[in-house]
């Protein structure tokens, strides 16, 4: 459940919601653990038989994408699959040694007290990335950029794994039943073990670890732990030989390297400096922070699915000094000065400022990862790629609009012309107003997720509208920032879905139609 508005017991609910938004250290052993849905599983694997006997539910594909080996690529040249020819007789001793070492050392999973453990799947890597970004106070642009790189690497990896070929050979379990016995402390069940291609989990883990360690090298040990989990699970599974594990890992490293090579040419070099001198009606640093402009060049970064950040640039907002602009500012003053307790809770929940997961991270982990956790590895990876590239493209498109129009924030106008001592409920962030980032991010995410998980479409759309309205109530956006951001987010989402051969749902009332603040006439009567 996403909407704060749907819950009555505010104190308890907020504690739960904020806990859900920020904790990745909690163990989630209670979650349903995905087994494999691949019909090519080696039925002779005793590990697979144990999973079935234990009553574990198999992971299920989303049923939306094309066959894995035929899926799209985000790279100019996709990394090709490899051919592996296991030699059981020659590899028995090596596997026995790996299993002995695994049985005598502490498990890699969860040793840092933060990593969410059980499977080293794409959702786990995304969880960890957003947690790292939150703790290091990444801004939403950098958060979405790293997430998209990670999502693309995972997607490209599972496609390369599916395109790989493994020569027929007896599995370890078929060769010696002792090679499939459970190893204490290692979660080896539930690994997807295709009979004729490489296990997707190991390839995706290697690719995502490679990207994460390059993007955030200080945090590399935490990602290496998850990568070790992927190796350990395969060693314990009794389903693959060391040559398959090594080939899968090396292929993943190649995918991660190729992803980095392309992504690092997007123009997102660190920016240093200050904003130019502002003219009347242009953005200026605002009370509370008085910080310089954040990432003013981000609108020129290269997106993943759009031709450029300006592809869907919205029309100009009302001009400062016009009657329409003044009415919008007056609306912000009246609405933002008369919040009910419930509205205040909603505004604060959706704040997601510095030190939080930020809007892209919230939608990627607290919403998407939880919804995708029992999906098979390939569809996890592809779904996260569609969503994460939409989040990054939204960043670029939103920032293109913000710095193209350079519109002054409500607090500046209100304190100058309407109420000199007024301050909004929320701290105004250090960048121009038009369009609203929360509106763009939340709408793009909701439109993508409603297609990936249709049964929750209404929930996603309602939550996006609630997040968007909260920025007007919080006193930091005009209504046209909100409506413009929603429209932009819809276009970005459609482009991301189109890349995957999908389209937005036509059955749902749009996010824009669900907004409360669609004009300056809404909520302008102050409460007594």
Automatic annotation (TrEMBL):
Region (Disordered): 304-323
Domain Phosphatidic acid phosphatase type 2/haloperoxidase: 385-497
Pfam assignment, any one: PAP2
InterPro entries referenced in this protein's UniProt entry, alphabetically: PAP2/HPO, PAP2/HPO_sf, V-haloperoxidase
SUPFAM superfamilies linked to this entry: Acid phosphatase/Vanadium-dependent haloperoxidase
Protein name: Unannotated protein
């Amino acid at each position: 459940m996403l909407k704060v508005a749907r819950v009555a017991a505010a104190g308890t609910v907020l504690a739960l919601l904020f806990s859900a938004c920020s904790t990745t250290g909690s163990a989630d052993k209670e979650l349903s653990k995905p087994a494999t849905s691949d019909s090519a599983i080696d039925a002779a694997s005793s590990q697979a038989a144990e999973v079935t006997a234990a009553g574990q539910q198999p992971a299920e594909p989303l049923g939306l994408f094309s066959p894995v080996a035929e899926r799209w690529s985000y790279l100019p040249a996709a990394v090709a699959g490899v051919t592996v020819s296991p030699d059981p007789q020659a590899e028995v001793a090596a596997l026995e040694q790996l299993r002995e070492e695994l049985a005598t050392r502490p498990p890699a999973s969860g040793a840092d007290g933060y990593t969410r453990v059980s499977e080293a799947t794409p959702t786990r890597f995304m969880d960890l990335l957003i947690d790292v970004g939150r703790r290091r106070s990444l801004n939403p642009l950098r958060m979405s950029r790293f997430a998209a790189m990670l999502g693309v690497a995972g997607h490209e990896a599972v496609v390369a794994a599916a395109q790989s070929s493994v020569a027929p050979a007896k599995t370890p379990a078929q060769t010696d039943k002792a090679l499939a016995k459970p190893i204490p402390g290692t979660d080896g069940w539930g690994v997807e073990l295709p009979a004729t291609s490489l296990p997707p989990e190991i390839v995706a883990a290697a690719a995502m670890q490679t990207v994460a360690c390059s993007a955030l090298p200080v945090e590399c040990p935490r990602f290496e732990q998850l990568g070790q989990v992927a190796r350990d699970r395969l060693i314990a599974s009794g389903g693959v030989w060391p040559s398959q594990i090594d080939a899968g890992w090396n292929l993943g490293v190649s995918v991660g390297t190729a992803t980095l090579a392309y992504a690092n040419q997007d123009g997102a070099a660190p920016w240093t400096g200050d904003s130019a001198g502002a003219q009347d009606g242009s953005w200026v640093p605002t009370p509370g922070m008085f910080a310089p402009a954040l990432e003013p060049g981000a609108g020129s970064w290269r997106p993943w699915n759009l031709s450029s950040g300006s592809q869907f640039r919205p029309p100009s907002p009302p001009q400062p000094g016009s009657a329409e602009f003044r009415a919008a500012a007056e609306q912000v003053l009246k609405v933002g000065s008369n919040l009910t307790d419930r509205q205040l809770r909603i505004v604060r929940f959706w704040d997601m400022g510095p030190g939080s997961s930020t809007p892209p991270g919230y939608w990627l982990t607290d919403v998407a990862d939880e919804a995708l956790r029992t999906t098979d590895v390939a569809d996890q990876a592809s779904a996260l790629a569609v969503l994460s590239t939409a989040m990054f493209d939204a960043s670029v498109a939103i920032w293109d609009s913000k710095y193209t129009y350079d519109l002054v924030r409500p607090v500046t106008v209100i304190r100058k012309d309407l109420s000199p001592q007024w301050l909004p409920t929320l701290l105004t962030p250090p960048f121009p107003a038009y369009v609203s980032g929360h509106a763009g991010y939340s709408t793009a995410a909701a439109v993508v997720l409603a297609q990936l998980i249709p049964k929750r479409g209404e929930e996603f759309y309602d939550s996006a509208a609630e997040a968007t309205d909260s920025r007007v109530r919080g006193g930091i956006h005009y209504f046209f920032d909100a409506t413009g951001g929603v429209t932009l987010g819809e276009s970005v989402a459609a482009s991301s879905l189109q890349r995957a051969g999908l389209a937005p749902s036509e059955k749902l009332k749009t996010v824009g139609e669900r907004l409360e603040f669609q004009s300056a006439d809404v909520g302008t009567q102050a409460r007594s």
